[in-house]
Write a structure and sequence with these properties.
InterPro entries: DUF2358 (IPR018790). It holds the Pfam family DUF2358. The chain is mainly beta and 160 residues long. The protein has one domain: Nuclear Transport Factor 2, Chain: A (Roll). Strands 2-1-6-5-4-3 form a 6-stranded mixed sheet. A hairpin with a 4-residue loop joins β5 and β6. The protein starts with 43 loop residues before the first helix and ends in a 5-residue tail after the last strand. 18% of the residues are buried.
Length: 160
């Protein structure tokens, strides 16, 4: 039985239950691979390859996301892919960033969890303060259109 979803029931599609599928992380020749496998389960490899481009010139692959994308982080909320991409562009304008993906794992039938760290330097101030945010993203998929439909971010806080 898969772990329970971390999304509110109003923002989660509940497909028929089936066993969690396992994926081999290997390159497959010849064109783009599907974001979902034949059974409709999310394939984590595409996200692992795409996320490092979140803040670079290549950018993320917009075709992996549905037009209606439920996005939440501690300071922003968007319900469309355009709002999500606007949020990324705003961060690009205000900060110089280094983005590190630590792992990408399937954590539910239609859910992938990523662990990452972003280092941001605020460019508008002359001393360019540096902010370090370790976080977790939970990406939900829609098996009907085979695209991501939700992205929720939690920052990891620690007190030493």
């Amino acid at each position: 039985m898969p772990p329970p979803s971390k999304f509110p029931a109003t923002h989660r599609l509940d497909p028929p239950r089936r066993p969690i599928l396992t994926f081999q992380k290997r390159k497959v020749g010849g064109g783009r691979r599907p974001y979902f496998d034949a059974e409709g389960g999310l394939v984590e490899l595409q996200l692992e390859e795409d996320l490092p481009h979140l803040f670079d010139e290549q950018e993320i692959d917009r075709s992996m996301y549905g037009e209606r994308l439920w996005f939440r982080d501690p300071i922003a909320k968007h319900d469309t892919i355009d709002g999500y991409l606007f949020n990324i562009r705003l961060l690009e304008l205000l900060f110089r960033r280094d983005f590190y993906v630590h792992h990408v794992r399937q954590t539910g039938i239609d859910e992938i969890t990523t662990r990452w760290t972003v280092v941001m330097r605020f460019v508008l101030l002359p001393w360019k303060p540096e902010l370090v945010f370790p976080g977790i993203s939970i990406m939900g998929g829609n098996p009907q259109n085979q695209k991501f439909c939700s992205h929720a971010i939690s920052l990891i806080y620690s007190c030493n």
